[in-house]
Amino acid sequence: MNEHDSELIAGMLENKGYLSAEDQYDADIVVVNTCCVRETAENKVFGLLGRLGQLKKQRPHLIIAMGGCMSQQVHIGKRIKQRFQYVDIVFGTHNIHMLPELIDRVEEQKKQIIDIWPDKKEIIEGLSKKRFHGVRAWVNIMYGCNNFCTYCIVPYVRGREKSRQPEDIINEIQELVQRGYKDITLLGQNVNSYGKDLKDGVDFADLLVKINDIKDLCRIRYMTSHPKDFCDKLVTTVSRLNKVCEHIHLPVQAGSNHILKKMNRGYTREYYLELVEKIRSAVPGVSLTTDIMVGFPGETDADFTDTMELVRKVEFDSAFTFIYNKRQGTPAAGMEDQIPDEIKVERIEKLISLQNEISLRNNKKEVGKTLECLVEGPSKTNANLMSARTRTNKIVVFRGKQDMVGKLVPLRITGSGLTHLEGEFIPVE
Ligand code: SAH
Ligand code: SF4
């Protein structure tokens, strides 16, 4: 979501006549787009702002702007005002579209502007975005979150759920397809609740049906899916639509009912396991990935064992693993029984090592298969190789040519590792 916001920021700046600089030392404006889901990300931002302050001493005309989730928090705005007066603009998540105007104002007034809106007044359509990838593109279908999981800051900094009109989404995708994009990822904090705030009764499954009809679009992805809202209609819909890829990111967060309840996730371990079964029998070969947290307040050894057991049972293809981190203003931050750091670290190490074992094993099972892959460009790790993606969202590196970019090709999988597969191109007779 944040990376996509950065595409919007870059697009608006280019529209205003700016060009992207090689690095911050060569820039006239630096926009820091922040995340506050965890404390480490926040600390990095303060470090970066400190370095930018030094840079501004050498380049006084430099404009420093800070936006994103972190800026949206009142206490952060106060801290910037007191300690980082050289930051010219602070904007939030609901007024990103105002950035060009704020730049004009700061150039005129030459004093710090802090402009944070409490919520999104309306969805602004038609803003230009600079896409960072050539073949894949992100498309927001909704903003905000209504779920209030007790550990999570997102609902406080992104506001309540607001869905875009289906026509606006379709138009954006059609335009992207005309420009050569093949693989679209629909974005929302909880895509399964798309449309609940719209008047015409369109839900996420209906939206997928409409998008599946877009000519020349190859692949549809979506994230994130909340398990509690993954209804039977959606399972059937994703199983029958040919462009919807066989990959579901389904964050479980924890494997113990006691912790799931304290997290306010709205489902039980049994419900989650049943949903996984339902999805696997409806969508053969589906890849499931997840987010898991350890060290939530009150997590006992038995709770953690439940999480490990669930991971062993489901055999996710990969998982983003997190150490629980207190976020100011969330209910969990005030809960008793916060878990000591040593235990959190011990648990996450065990979890990562288990998940790595499973990921390696699952990837190995792909060897020998021939898979339809979409070629994305040169490999990030080896410039002599090309990188492609399977429908199940696995990266395959192979020997190929630049003119294959954007094409669907069959690749025979010849090797596997933790994060990617190796393959060879099979020319079609
Ligand atoms: N809307 C998505 C994810 C949003 S945040 C969902 O519901 O799954 C991305 C991930 O960050 C979450 O899935 C969670 O695992 C992690 N996360 C959120 N708040 C956290 C916190 N306080 N400490 C540690 N991890 C956190
Ligand atoms: Fe945060 Fe829960 Fe909303 Fe995801 S669903 S953004 S974890 S509150």
TrEMBL record:
One of its GO terms (cellular component) is cytosol. Residues 131-361 form the Radical SAM core domain. InterPro entries: Elp3/MiaA/NifB-like_rSAM (IPR006638), Methylthiotransferase (IPR005839), Methylthiotransferase_CS (IPR020612), Methylthiotransferase_N (IPR013848), Methylthiotransferase_N_sf (IPR038135), MiaB_methiolase (IPR006463), rSAM (IPR007197), rSAM_horseshoe (IPR023404). It is found in: Cytoplasm. It is an enzyme of class 2 (transferase). Its EC number is 2.8.4.3. One of its GO terms (molecular function) is tRNA-2-methylthio-N(6)-dimethylallyladenosine(37) synthase activity. Residues 1-108 form the MTTase N-terminal domain. Its cofactor is [4Fe-4S] cluster. The keyword Ribonucleoprotein does not apply. PANTHER family: CDK5 REGULATORY SUBUNIT-ASSOCIATED PROTEIN 1 (PTHR43020), MITOCHONDRIAL TRNA METHYLTHIOTRANSFERASE CDK5RAP1 (PTHR43020:SF2). Catalyzes the methylthiolation of N6-(dimethylallyl)adenosine (i(6)A), leading to the formation of 2-methylthio-N6-(dimethylallyl)adenosine (ms(2)i(6)A) at position 37 in tRNAs that read codons beginning with uridine. NCBIfam families: miaB-methiolase, MiaB/RimO family radical SAM methylthiotransferase. Belongs to the methylthiotransferase family. MiaB subfamily. This is tRNA-2-methylthio-N(6)-dimethylallyladenosine synthase. It comes from Desulfallas thermosapovorans DSM 6562.
